[in-house]
Amino acid sequence: MSDAQRPSDDGVSSEQPSTGGVGGGDSDSGDGNDEFEPVQVFPEAEEMDLRPGADSCYKCSTCDTNCPVAEVDDEFPGPKFQGPEQWRLKRQDDHDIDDSVMKCSNCMRCDSACPSSVPLSQMHNTARAEYVEENMSKFSREYLRNRVLANYRRLAPLASMFPRTANFVMGRSVTKWLGEKTLGITSERDFPEFATETFREWWTDRGGANVENEDKRIAYFHGCYSNYNTPEVAKALVHVYEHFGYEVMVPEQSCSGTPMFANGMLEDARRAAETNVRELAAAIEDGADVIASCSSCSMSIRQEYPELFDFENTEDVAANTWDAVEYLRVHEDLMGALENTTVGDEFDDMAYHAPCHSRNQGLDGQTIEVMDAIDGIDAHDVGDSCSGISGTYGWKEENYETSMKIGEEMFEHMDAAEAETGLTECPTCSMQMEHGTGYEIKHTLEVLEAALVGDRDGSGSGSHASAGAGTETATESN
Amino acid sequence: MAITDDVLVIGGGLAGATAALAASDAAEDARVRLVTYKQSTLRHASGLIDVLGYAPSGDGQQQPIADPFTALESLPESHPYQRVGVDAVREALAFFDEVAGDAYAGAHTDRNALVPTHGGTVKPTARYPVSTAEGLASDDRDTLLVGFKTLPDFDAPLAAAHLEAAGAPFDARGVTLSFPGIGRDDAKVTRYAHLLDHDERVETLTGETGAREAIAATVKPHLDGESRVGFPAILGDEHPTAVREALSDALGADVFEVPMGPPSLPGLRLEDLLYDALESAGVRVTAGVPVVGHETTSEGMTAAIDHVVVDRHGAEIPHEADQYVLATGGLVGKGIESNRKRVTEPLFDCYVPHATDRYNWFVDDVFGEQPYARFGVVPDTELRPLDADDDPEFSNLRAAGAVLGGYDYAAEKSGAGVSLATGYVAGTHAGEACQ
């Protein structure tokens, strides 16, 4: 075997270029006094070169054993097929993307499973986008429904203008029935309520930041849900960060793109990401680090943007984006600050679910560690299962049953834990937790706010739209 | 602010998990954290705990070792077992038995058990999942092996023929059937397990029944007086005992599992067992992120690790501890790496002895004594990695598992035992040192 033929698996894991890096341009050759001459085997430069990822797969199937969908639905061929195998099949001209790609819930658990660092979710995102582009009719009910779900942010401002009306209409059984019949949105779930005052409205009314500090600045990426639905979470972030002396900036922003990736609406996601990268890069230029309170938002900016887009500053924004609690742990003495703090009865006993998108950032153990530092809180981890809703996935009529089957393990563990309040950092996980158990679900930042700042301007019930909405959903927790 | 603990274990496999448990056992008040990049390779593993199946430097034709503990004494001085000593191996196994409880069998004897595997070969092993216990090849009861069309990794008739050809003291027969409730050819092993765990309703020719009952009904007509039935290892993930008992009751025969290749449910169950134990011991686990660098301090002669840096999607998170354990695996687990010039330990650049000419890294006989199989760091008796001059690289770093050199776990069948023994010793020392 000559040197040129001798395969080398050196460096397959991390250093592969994700765009245009056509075979052979080996970074290892810098110190080369060997007679090793790389041969260009794969001539054509593709827009996004996924070959290194496909080639790194040695078919151990660890990803498949992590897939929550494949475990309950044997019609779903699993991440190994959706990623590397489908990519190889597609080298032949006569293969379309298999329609099973739409059954992937985009939980991204396969990513952190792979011992070979195959970029599985990147492969799934591109395959799903290709399927939607090439194989799904733009006039189909499914396309329309997915577009609506993926672009929830476009509807939310309307609902927020008339939140009581919207909550009333969305809560009506006839609306839900219509939603299922006309759009295929499951009638089993209650639509999330819209707040009477969005976070951004509150922020403007408040006159923006209360703390100015050019040495400690953060740009808050609040995402859609904490703006329109749970402003108490966003306010908690502001209060906690101001407590530590940070100047909070709230830049213009679009949806993080997570629901768009999950529905194969890559162009919608590209537009949103372009706005976000531009605005966040400007904030970084002003000395801020980017902080997100939603685990899927931070996941999207940190991982999916650099995997899928190449706008200027994409990598820079990714590397400077943090989870809200993680940032405080590293930049402040959060654990020290929490020592000897207490919180009200509201938070004494909690069932914590780590969202998959936290897990993929190595943050699944963080919340319990932080909660342990606060006196009188008993927080139980309800295990490593997926909640099953995975963003818009569990909202689809055809996925509802699968979604609830996946969630069963979490529901059982929540039930077994001695707690009647749930805790998580993901908006849709919290919907699923509430839907499956009837518990009230809190965000970690709300607990930190209670511990560090106390009850500021009546946060909690005051800002939440409970007044006109409860009529049809009286069984709901609040 | 670094994230601060007393003991930091890097690596989440059998060695790393054991080290973290041992550290926390040795120093009850110590805060122990385990950081692991990607998922543990335990799900690639058979779930069997071998200590020593074959003597090293064998020619591949030899007989399995009957008593591994006696054989340990004659291993070369460079072998990890010799570094920690036979007593430590025994202590480590006792420690494992404590953690595993009734999920594992084999503690009643020093001698190796012979567990049939999915190829019909037998594997000499010191401990084995209780689900495999009724299948031991030393047991002379006749055996029916059941395979499923949609699980081609286990060809039951072939495995049965292989067992007989290998001289098993019983008649073995294999049949291949359809698995009720599974429609696809490529359903995942977790799907089979989930179906049985939850006893989901499945369609059969005679109507809808629970999955466990449906399988028993499928197998029963093929039973011809055998008193034990072996299935591929897919009999449940969360509730394997209940699944096995239900099948056993319905069949009127003992039921056992035959360990399979990856992805392996017995490996997954072992992983769950260890991670549950870590949680109970209060060990903090950070998973899915790699350690990418370290900073040292030097007090006196030997350098010490001040902190390591964990990468979270580009953000560098410092992790600080008093004592560190390196359990990142060998060439397969990427704890040892090679390029065209060197063999390295990538995290701390610990010394890894190897020939300068890479053509001396292997021998032509595939099953011969391969130098590459023994690549790894060289430890002292406390398992601190040594530099080229035989001095500890760092005063507060110990190594465990396949990142250690000097043994060929695949040829010897010693992978799990070395991980347990060295994980136990490294973790215990780390815990004691931070007291």
What would a concise description of this structure say?
With 478 residues, chain A is α/β, with parallel strands linked by helices.
Description of the structure:
The complex is a heterodimer of chains A (478) and B (435). Chain A is α/β, with parallel strands linked by helices and 478 residues long. Among the domains of chain A are: 76 residues, no CATH class; 254 residues, no CATH class. Helices cover 46% and strands 7% of the residues of chain A. In chain A, the strands form two sheets. Chain A has a four-stranded parallel beta sheet, sandwiched between helices. In chain A, strands 6-5-7-8 form a four-stranded parallel beta sheet, sandwiched between helices. In chain A, helix 4 crosses helix 6. Chain A is globular, with a radius of gyration of 23 Å. The termini of chain A are far apart. The N terminus and C terminus of chain A are likely disordered. By secondary structure, chain B is α/β, with parallel strands linked by helices. In chain B, 27% of the residues lie in helices and 21% in strands. Chain B has a five-stranded parallel beta sheet, covered by helices on one side. Chain B has a four-stranded mixed beta sheet with strand order 1-17-16-15, with no helix packed on it. In chain B, strand 8, helix 5 and strand 9 form a beta-alpha-beta unit. The mean pLDDT of chain B is 94. At the A-B interface, helix 2, helix 3, helix 17 and helix 18 of A face helix 6, strand 14, strand 17 and strand 19 of B.
